[in-house]
Amino acid sequence: MLKFSRHIREIMFLFMVALVVVPTSLQGQARPSPKTAHVPIPRIAPRPQDVATMDGIISAFYDVVSGPAGQPRQWSRDSTLYVPGVLFISTDVGKDGKPYHQIMSHQQFVDKYNASVVSQGFYEQEIHRVTTRYGTIAHVMSTYVMRRTANGPLIGRGVNSLELFYDKGRWWIVCDLWDEERPGNPLPKELLP
């Protein structure tokens, strides 16, 4: 029988509360995003190595968004990693000190971030992972670092809270909720290598 630490149980409980509360009661508090250019995302079949294992899907999740300045990102490949209706939820704290979030579809996520990651270069790399799995579902706390070039200085760190589901012989990402390290919000030792 698996024994989960109190910390893991608390994280899972808070995430489940967020899935229920955020879309219903807080949605009106999300900050509007500026106009962004629409990025076409042609449909393609998933790569078997991307979705056959949990390691494969998380590796692909980071690989598709990473690359040097001027290189188009692999948004079609990225779209194969998610269930229809996947949610991307970014969180932060405004200059007024109040937390806020933005809920996005895959298309909205791509439209919002494509221009900056392509023009400036962007590399996101997982450095640690805490996984809790039960049957066909898994919760992954994936700690990452960000850089503008492959081996450049760090520009930030954070945690992707990923919900995964195994169905039809493959893994799917259901939700990505993330937060970044900032003053007053350091990464806890449990989520560091």
3D structure, described in words:
This protein is of the alpha+beta class and 193 residues long. It has a single domain (6-18, 45-185), classed as Nuclear Transport Factor 2, Chain: A. The chain has 5 helices and 6 strands. It has helices spanning 6-26, 48-51, 54-63, 75-79, 106-120; strands at 82-93, 99-104, 123-134, 137-147, 154-167, 170-180. The protein has a 6-stranded mixed beta sheet with strand order 2-1-6-5-4-3, sandwiched between helices. Mean pLDDT is 88; it is low at 11-33.
How are the SSEs ordered, and which strands pair?
Elements (H helix, E strand, L loop, with lengths): L5 H21 L21 H4 L2 H10 L11 H5 L2 E12 L5 E6 L1 H15 L2 E12 L2 E11 L6 E14 L2 E11 L13
Parallel strand pairs: 1-6
Antiparallel strand pairs: 1-2, 3-4, 4-5, 5-6
Briefly, what is this?
With 193 residues, the chain is α+β, with helices and mostly antiparallel strands. Helix content is 28%, strand content 34%.
The SSE string, one letter per element, is HHHHEEHEEEE
As a percent range, the share of strand residues is: 25-35%
CATH class: Alpha Beta
Question: Structural class of the helices, strands and pairings?
Answer: alpha+beta
Question: How would you characterize the largest beta sheet?
Answer: 6 strands, mixed
Known CATH architecture: Roll
Low-confidence segments, given as residue ranges, are: 11-33
Q: What does the radius of gyration come to?
A: 17 Å
Number of domains: 1
* Percent range of helical residues: 25-40%
* Helical stretch tally: 5
Q: How is the CATH topology named?
A: Nuclear Transport Factor 2, Chain: A
Q: What is the mean predicted local confidence, pLDDT?
A: 88
**End-to-end CA span:** 26 Å
